[in-house]
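Observation: inputs received (chain + LLP).
Thought: call the complex predictor directly.
Action: predict_structure
Action Input:
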Amino acid sequence: MLKGTFPVEKFKLLPTPFYYYDMKLLQDTLDVVKAESGKYGYHVHYAIKANANPRILSMIAANGLGADCVSGGEVQAALDAGFPADKIVFAGVGKADWEINLGLDNDIFCFNVESAAELEVINELAAAKGKVAPVALRVNPEVDAHTHAKITTGMKENKFGINLSQLGSVLDQLKGMRNVRLIGIHSHIGSQITDMSGFRNLAIRMNEIQDDLAARGIVVENINLGGGLGIDYYHPNHMPIPAFDNYFAAVHKLLQPRPGQRIHFEPGRSIVAQCGSLIARVLYVKEGEMKKFAILDAGFTELIRPAMYDAYHRIENISSDEPVDVYDVVGPICESSDVFGKDIELNKTHRGDWIAIRSAGAYGEVMASRYNCRSLPKAYYSDTI
Ligand code: LLP
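Observation:
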């Protein structure tokens, strides 16, 4: 079995479970993101929701990326990590007044507005401060991302964005507003997208939207195509850096920007997923009647993706080289959904073995919970362990 390389001897000094981040892989990934987006002059805002660990954030900020935030807490985390305010975009269907005020007070680059009602509130709050808020309208492009239903966002039935049929009336509404300024159009179709046709269709739809705007005499300065590039959960060792070259090239081929227009992206998962692993130890091997269970000291409190989205994560026994056997790999939480994987091939597993659950750098640590009164685990980093 081809496994990742982990400093298991060093792990033996650390209490499990914990998140382990390969900081070299993160830097290599960022280098590729910068090189590939730089070919076309694209602007990349890292989606903080994927992983808001302060060390990860500071490294991404130090590489010059912007930030995509969906809450006041994320805006604050971005500022604390050193992302410049003029590279922060702030999306979300339900921004509270204090969150909008935080964005206004810090002069962030842009509010991605998701409804006519929100636009009214931003206009009022900006007026109270004597400011003009820069806004992009988040349009629901009605493009199918061909991904898991729970992480599809760009369809009519989703709560996100302004429907295409209502865009005209929102643009009319904007005309009468003095304290918001339309600077862009934004769209995001979903997450863990591996079929490039979704992104191609989004680029084509954006051209159509731009034609409609032009017919109204409107040209915006910014187009934001959101995030969503998927990663290879099955082969993290073969494919540690996602194909950013294909992604940006696919968009570049089809998108028709207007002169001087700036193109933005909001990738989250594709930047951080592969650099993170959840490291756990085997508490018990339980021989059931039909199955063997490897019971770990980590559960869905540390990585909820398998329980919540039936997501596959590669699981490796990093301390055993014995012949392979088959296990259901489960956690200790008192819920039957606390399963990391069924019928998983692992090198023969014993109590005390070290297990790596791979590709956990995105939507892992950031979605951890304290259910069952568990403690939130620590994170360790390849360069300081
Ligand atoms: N921009 C917007 C407006 C978003 O809603 C999202 C993700 C992103 C960017 C970043 O998408 P990414 O590049 O990471 O796919 N917890 C789920 C994923 C939820 C994604 C929510 N929105 C999971 O573990 O699969």
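Thought: report the result.
Final Answer: Residues 47, 49-50, 68, 91, 151, 153, 188, 191-192, 226-229, 266-270, 305, 309, 363 surround LLP (CB under 6 Å). The chain has a mean pLDDT of 95.
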